[in-house]
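User: Design a sequence. Structure:
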């Protein structure tokens, strides 16, 4: 009779060295390794291993970029990602949540903004009532959903920014306040509400450490209203961009009916709540060129502006220096696929950290854009199964945090 012997498990440090050799870009392979056995799962789920595998300043992406969309006919917002690590199928927002209280509160919700794994949605209960706004904050990594108090105001348009604890920590190291009872984590929501006309614009703030919304703050003073025409904050497709402790919206105005629109930034200091309006110091002959779309972004830690110019179908990147001046740091000629696309209305979608950039045209077709060569790949059917709606929000999640949430032991 042959004797059988059990295999001796490899020491944890040996397993760690083996798993560190899994290519960083092959995330699905690392997930498959993690579910092989309890020992490997524990090694992969260790935060120190994940940070070593994906160093924050490494040249390769240390985060996953996805999108939350509310396509017509679906009950919940859907998550779409070019990464197949979460499965090839589109997942509903509800599949990320342990519980949504009260039940079905997120039915027909519309995504508004995302940052650091937090997603702000507008609830259907507030879509039909013109004098109130209902929002909820979903923590995709923790699987929680916090419903905010109703905001009583007239709502024609709404644009939001979501701020994390890291955003709200002051430069001297003081930590953000602990959330009040009933909220799962610290967050702060800035809501830009447009009423009956574009200049009827108010800013509201809500913090999980406070019980109620702030009083409204007028976004435009009387000087702006007297000396400008067509003054407005561009809430779609340009949501707020957070850079160096300030949340920025993009705005435009004209000096009269015949002049070309000028651009400005409307900033809200994350710590103090103070607001500022600053005209973009970009040559007028550049801003006046006909364009398909504009979007604020962050490049190398600095605020930047992406402009899709009609002339030559060129994507320009303007970056703001420390002295407030803007310099064109990149100009690439786009090369659309052979099939006809309609750039009359373009949504430019990008993540907080990654260099991935997607464009959605007037028909909802989606194109992944190479920022080095300008090549555009049609990924509508491959990734998005027929296009995007107007209500689509990019969300970027840190890989280590995502692994910790999925493989915690």
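Assistant: Done.
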């Amino acid at each position: 009779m042959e004797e059988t012997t059990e295999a001796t498990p490899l020491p944890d440090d040996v397993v760690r060295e083996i798993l560190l050799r899994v290519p960083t870009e092959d995330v699905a392979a690392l997930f498959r390794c993690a579910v092989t056995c309890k020992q490997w799962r524990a090694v992969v789920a260790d935060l120190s291993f994940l940070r070593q595998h994906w160093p924050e300043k490494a040249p390769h992406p240390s985060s996953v970029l996805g999108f939350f969309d509310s396509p017509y006919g679906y009950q919940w917002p859907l998550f779409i990602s070019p990464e197949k690590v979460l499965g090839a199928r589109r997942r509903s927002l509800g599949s990320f949540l342990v519980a949504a209280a009260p039940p079905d509160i997120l039915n027909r919700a519309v995504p508004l903004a995302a940052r650091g794994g937090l997603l702000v949605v507008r609830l259907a209960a507030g879509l039909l009532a013109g004098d109130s706004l209902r929002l909820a904050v979903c923590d995709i990594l923790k699987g929680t959903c916090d419903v905010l108090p109703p905001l009583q105001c007239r709502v024609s348009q709404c644009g939001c920014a979501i701020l994390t604890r890291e955003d709200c920590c002051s430069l001297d190291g003081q930590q953000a306040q602990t959330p009040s009872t009933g909220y799962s984590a610290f967050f702060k929501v800035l809501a830009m509400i447009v009423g009956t006309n574009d200049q009827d614009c108010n800013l509201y703030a809500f913090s999980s450490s406070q019980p109620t919304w702030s009083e409204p703050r007028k976004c435009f003073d009387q000087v702006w209203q007297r000396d400008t025409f067509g003054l407005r904050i561009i809430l779609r497709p340009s949501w707020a961009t957070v850079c160096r402790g300030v949340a920025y919206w993009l705005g435009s105005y004209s000096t009269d009916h015949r002049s070309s629109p000028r651009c400005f930034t409307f900033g809200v200091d994350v710590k103090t709540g103070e607001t500022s309006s600053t005209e973009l110091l970009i040559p007028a002959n550049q801003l006046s060129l006909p364009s398909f779309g504009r979007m604020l972004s962050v490049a190398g830690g600095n605020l930047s502006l992406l402009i899709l110019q009609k002339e030559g179908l060129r994507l320009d990147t303007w970056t703001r220096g420390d002295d407030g001046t803007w310099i064109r740091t990149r100009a690439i000629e786009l090369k659309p696929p052979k099939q006809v696309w309609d750039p009359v209305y373009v949504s430019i979608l990008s993540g907080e950290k990654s260099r991935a950039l997607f464009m959605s045209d007037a028909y909802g077709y989606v194109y992944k854009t190479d920022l080095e060569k300008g090549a555009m790949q049609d990924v509508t059917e491959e990734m998005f199964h027929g296009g995007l709606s107007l209500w689509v929000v990019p969300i970027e999640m840190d890989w280590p945090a995502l692994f910790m949430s999925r493989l915690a032991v």
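The radius of gyration is 23 Å. The CA atoms of residues 168 and 174 lie 9 Å apart.
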